[in-house]
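Figure-free illustration: sequence to structure, shown twice.
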Amino acid sequence: MTQQPNIDGRRWLETDGGPVLLSSVSLLSSWTGYNGDYDLVIEMTDAGRSECYDLPGRNIAILGDEPLSTTIIESRSLIVQWIHGNSEENMRKYASEVDLDAIAWHEGPVLECDGNFALMDTATPGDEATEEHMLMFTLEVGRYRIDSAEIPLAPHCAAKLHRLVLLTS
């Protein structure tokens, strides 16, 4: 897989109706999507939580339970899921400017990163995914906690934010 350039919200990932998966790129080939793993996603997301779901023993997380358009603001280690807003430009602008320290975050699962993470549709098998089906980004190798929050970014603009926090110990 070819590494994509710094994304910073310029491209949005759409799914075919399922939530978004976050995983190290090296683990994508083990994801079976509609051939099996997607059934697990459906069972897990029946709880209706908007935060991340952890797949025990898999080093994979599911970002909420909705098929929201998703982008990355790589410079902030921030995943943005569009709830509502007037334009892509406004979503990028407000998510880039929001004070991350002022948000009441829900601490989520911890994933190991080998340097490259990917976001993709949970229904897509990893061995069928192409650059068109995913967003890839680079982070420092280490353990990351995924903090989540659903917030208004501005009048008539709201998003689910997922912050990747590098753990030092």
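We now fold a second protein in the same way, so the two outputs can be compared directly.
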Amino acid sequence: MSRISRTVAATAIATVALGATTLAAAGTASADTNYHCKTSSASVDNPAYSGPWSDNYNFDVSLCAKRSGGYIYAYANVKFEGPVSYVNQVDVLDAARFHLQVKKSVSGSDPVVKWANYTGLEYKLEHGNTLGNGSYKTGTIKYKAGSGKYLADGFIQLDWNNDGKAYRNTYFSASPTV
């Protein structure tokens, strides 16, 4: 039996064994298509380094929101290209996090109705692949929505080692309203 045939057979057996559980999981996956996302980019320079080597992180961030069952759900997906010299270096950053927000869309400044900090970003930045690249997805914020429109917004906060400052913010475009 070929590898593909064995995989198809194993999948069929697992599907029969799991029964309704498989159908529930498929329903959850299809619900994810309701997210409305906006991707934007930014390049961030290490202010503590002025040498000849590349030291920028290049970020592509997708901020995503959806409305479902009276709730707003929001998350961020971060893709980055970092310097090869930063791979497995834990002394470049003192801290890093993604600050995710759910905002109510109003005339003027949109007020934040819920937020969370996701600190797992620091580990990912410090342990990119051998080219210094990687990705990170935040958890999902859930907010009980009232009437009106909402959106996901957020920014990356980097605290560079030896720069004498705390977090520096890098902003991205908010998701479409939901």
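Summary for the second example: The chain has a mean pLDDT of 84.
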